Each structure stands twice: as C-alpha cells, then as structure tokens.
From TrEMBL:
Gene: rlmD
NCBIfam families xref list: rumA
Gene3D superfamilies (alphabetical): 2.40.50.1070, Nucleic acid-binding proteins, Vaccinia Virus protein VP39
Protein name per the record: 23S rRNA (Uracil(1939)-C(5))-methyltransferase RlmD
Annotated keywords: Methyltransferase, S-adenosyl-L-methionine, Transferase
Domain of life: Bacteria
Residues that hold S-adenosyl-L-methionine according to the record: 289, 318, 339, 387
Coiled-coil ranges from the UniProt annotation: none
GO MF annotation: an example: rRNA (uridine-C5-)-methyltransferase activity
Organism expressing this protein natively: Turicibacter bilis
Pfam families: TRAM, tRNA_U5-meth_tr
Length: 464
C-alpha cells in the first residue's frame, strides 16, 4: 500500500515546477505531485495540504517565500474566492507563454508526436486583456442584502457575490445590476436547488460588439411570476441599450443553463452584431464566440489555415450559426454547414441571407452521418473545418474524416487534452502542419488552438 508523504492539514514547503491545465501550480513534495492554485513557476511557497488522492495531493497557498518576477496584483477584489479566473496573479506575457506550454504538454502526454515537429507557435494575445466578454450567465442567489448574482467558487456550489466582473463588458455589469435590483423590487426570490423553492435561477446577458445592442434572458424555475412584462419594460427603461428580453423556464435538476421553454417577452426577437464585414442576428440560444476582438483573429487564422484558392468545397462541422463557414466563404466554391441544433441552422441560413452569401448550404444532423451522404452524392469536401465542444471529436466523426479524406482539416480546439487525444487518431492519416494557440479568455486557464492537418500524401503549407 502506497502511503502519501502528505497528510490533510499538514503545512509544507515546496517549489513550483510547472503550471497545470487548470492554471494551478504543480510542485513535488518527496516525489508526490501537489497542485496549488495561485502559484507560479519557480516560486518557493508554504502551503497546507487539503486533499490526498491516488498519486497526488492538493493544497492551499499560505504564503510565498520566493516570488516569481511574473507575479502581479490581481485586479479583481474577489479573485481567489470566485472560480471564474485562475491567472490574474500572473503577468499577461507569462499567461501567453504557459498557454502555449499547455498545448505542448498535452501533445507530449497523449500522443507519440514530437511537440517541436508540430510547430506550436506563440500564443496570439490581446492588447488589453480585460473587459472582453460579450456574454454573462450568472447564477442568482442571496446574501445579507437580498437577491444577488455571482459566480461559484472553485470546485464548490458556494456563490460568490460579483457586482463588477473585470473580464465582462462594463455595460453587461451595469445591466445585470439593474436586473438584480428589479428582481428584488418585484420580490422574485432566488431558486434554492436543495429545497426547490424560489424562482430565479440565472440572468443571461449578451451585448453586441459593434452595435451595443443588449439581450437579456431571465432563467426561472417555474411560471409562477406574473409580472414579467412589467419587469422587462422597467429594465428597458433603465437600460436603453436592452433591445430584447426573454424568459426561459428550466425546472430540471441539471447543470444546463437553459430549459426547453423559451418565451420572447419584450423588444426584438434578435439582437444584431458585426464581426469584420459580417452581420449576425443572435437569439438567446445562438452559439457566438464570447470574445469578439479575439474571434476576428481566430477566424482569420482558420482562413489562413484553410488556404483556399477559390475552387474548394468546404464543410463547416459544428457550424452553429454559421460564423466560421461564412468567414471563409468568399474564398470557396461552396460551403456546407452541419449542426445538430435546429435553431442554430435556422440562424445560420438567416445570417447567410443577411450577408448576401449564395454559396452556402446548411443541414440539421450529425456531421458523421451527413458528410458521407454528401460525398456519395458528389460533394466531396477539399477542406473540413471542425470546431467541437470541450469533449472533442467523437470516434464516429474521426472515422468519417479518415474515410472521406479531405485534403485539409482545420481543427479549432478549446481543450488541449481532447485535441491531443484526437490528433493521436487523426495522424494515422494526416500530418500536423502547425498549431496556432489563440488566447480567447485572458486571466483564465483556457486556451484555443487552430490546427492545420494535411493528408499525408499532400505537401504542408510550410513546404509550399
């Protein structure tokens, strides 16, 4: 039986050797890995063990004995309590470096590929890495002053009151604070999952990057509140930028934000926004990147990786409301998008009309079923763009790609671990040309990456 050198409650001294995938520092105490949030590489810290698990331990920072030159003062007053950000104690240049390292470490851990040969490029960052999020979805709860919203603390269901989030648009913070005041005024009580009493579960706010239009969705556990129209009108009076208000009913015991029932309450059904030369209409459920400034950089990287000449057939898998496919459509002969969400496909078709595109086509369904059908009908894609959720590509979709064999795959990843696991399978038929990390979420441990994969019988972009 292996005995841990650390015991819960034990205070110890350790040097941080690297940063983990969730932004925590990792040190080794008598060869046992210890995960300590809020620490930086090279720091000597005193910590208290909080948990011992198989082969590793977790600890809480007590004090830093030797500081890293990359340590900075966090901007947020509740940093360390709120679980939304993990890296505000780290200089931004160091954040960009460790995010590239996260991709490299995942490649090394889950594949037989040499990270050096994968050409992992420096992370593309932001000039101002604060106030960048165009959408907030904040749980509703209580504190001593009444109804409040916030974010859950790390690895718990304890809600931390947040009135001014430093990574959200200031205008979103203002709208949310007014919405909270109105819930209090109208005596809409917060929903308590344990007792199943109360009504308000979440406030979801989205703001257009260019237009400034705001859409608010109240998520309630039931239909008991009868003055929703009046509350919505009051909110639109206090916040003139609010152009659209919805009510969503979610009475399920689930971690999903939205339930099945979505009601339009006031204002417009959509808000509009612009990215580059493109216009988009956005409904509450529409997937839309949370950092518009970086989205433009990300999509330009996708376009560069696709290397279209004008005559290629492109498939946009997981197309959502069509943003990526439409971004590259001017350089393709035809773009076909597929997504399992019916509303997303309806939005994609509407957005294509809005942008005057005539070479796009959209279908509802699973890409692993739809794309082979298209190929059998004569639409064999030259380029497939995939932008999957954090869980990565499913086995069926990977097998479909290996069967259909497009010349190029452009993989947009939001999770280095699942990316690496997928690359292990895809590189049986494809070669990694390069990997370009993009920082979509400064101050957090998340990193996105654009990967260009070329069929093994094709020259790489570097070779041309």
């Amino acid at each position: 039986m292996n005995m841990s050198p650390l015991k819960v409650g034990q205070e110890f001294l350790v040097t941080i050797k690297r940063i983990g995938i969730n932004g925590e520092g990792i040190g080794y105490y008598k060869k046992q890995a210890v995960f300590i949030p809020g620490t930086l590489v090279g720091e000597e810290v005193v910590a208290t063990c909080t948990r011992v698990a198989g082969g590793y331990a977790e600890a809480e920072l007590v004090r830093v004995k030797r500081k890293s030159k990359h340590r900075v003062q966090p901007a947020c007053e509740v940093y360390g309590q709120c679980g939304g950000c993990q890296l505000q104690h780290m200089s931004y240049q160091e954040q960009l470096r460790i995010k590239r390292d996260a991709v490299s470490q995942a490649i090394e851990r889950y594949t037989n590929l040499d990270p050096e040969e994968c050409d992992i490029r420096p992370t593309i960052g932001m000039k101002d890495p604060y106030n960048y999020r165009n959408r907030a979805q904040m749980p509703v709860g209580y504190d001593e002053d009444g109804v409040m919203v916030g974010f859950y603390s790390m690895n718990s269901r304890e809600l931390v009151n947040v009135t001014d989030c430093d990574v959200q648009y200031e205008e979103i913070n203002t709208v949310i604070n007014h919405a909270v005041d109105l819930l209090d005024d109208y005596k809409v009580f917060a929903y308590a999952p344990k007792t199943k009493k109360g009504t308000a579960r979440y406030i979801v706010v989205r703001r257009g990057f260019k237009t400034g239009e705001v859409q608010v969705t109240f998520v309630f556990a039931n239909n008991e509140f009868r003055k929703m129209n009046a509350l919505a009108k009051d909110l639109m009076k206090y916040c003139p930028d609010v152009k659209s208000v919805y009510l969503n009913i979610n009475n399920e015991d689930t971690h999903e934000i939205f339930g099945k029932e979505m009601k339009h309450i006031a204002g417009e059904k959509f808000i509009s926004d612009e990215l580059g030369r493109f216009k988009f209409n956005l409904s509450p459920r529409a997937f839309y990147q949370l950092n518009p400034e970086q989205t433009i950089k990300l999509y330009n990287q996708v376009k560069y990786a696709a290397a279209l000449k004008g005559n290629e057939k492109v498939v946009d898998a997981y197309c959502g409301v069509g943003t990526i496919g439409q971004w590259v459509a001017d350089k393709a002969s035809e773009v076909r998008g597929v997504d399992i969400t019916r509303q997303a496909i309806a939005d994609a078709k509407e957005n294509a009309k809005l942008n005057g595109l005539t070479n796009t086509y959209y279908a509802v369904g699973k890409a692993e079923q739809i794309v082979p059908k298209w190929a059998n009908e004569g639409f064999k894609p030259d380029v497939v763009i995939v932008d999957p959720p954090r869980t990565g590509l499913g086995t069926e979709l990977i097998e479909m790609l290996k069967r259909v064999q497009p010349k190029t795959i452009v993989y947009v990843s939001c999770n280095p671990s699942t990316l690496a696991k997928n690359l292990k399978e895809l590189t049986k038929k494809y070669r990694v040309d390069y990997i370009q990390p993009v920082d979509m979420f400064p101050q957090t441990s998340h990193v996105e990456a654009v990967v260009r994969l070329v069929r093994q019988d094709r020259p790489s972009k570097k070779q041309r």
